[in-house]
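Homework help board

Subject: predicted structure for assignment chain

Our instructor gave us this sequence and asked us to write out the predicted structure in token form, then describe one feature. I got the tokens but I'm not sure how to describe them. Can anyone check?
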Amino acid sequence: MERLEEVERQHNELMKQHEEELLNVTTQHQSNMSSYESQLGQHADTICMLEQQLDICVSKNKDHQHEITVLNATNTSQQILIFILDYSVS
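My token output:
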């Protein structure tokens, strides 16, 4: 009978330890999940900000490309005009 009581006592202690460990693991898991959700939100905000900056850079790049095209056309026109003036003077 004493042996049975000892086994039951050990079993109850093990069950209690198991429940405490389960509670600790669950608490840690919930803490990790909360941290991951926060990080996910921060990453999403960063991605949105970078996408906005990329849109601005793409727009500025288009403007600069247009300006380069206009300047190249102007330069070509000026070179032709200089050539004509030089030819007519000679």
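Reply (TA_rk): Your tokens look well-formed. For the description, you could write something like this. The mean pLDDT is 94. That's the kind of observation they're looking for.
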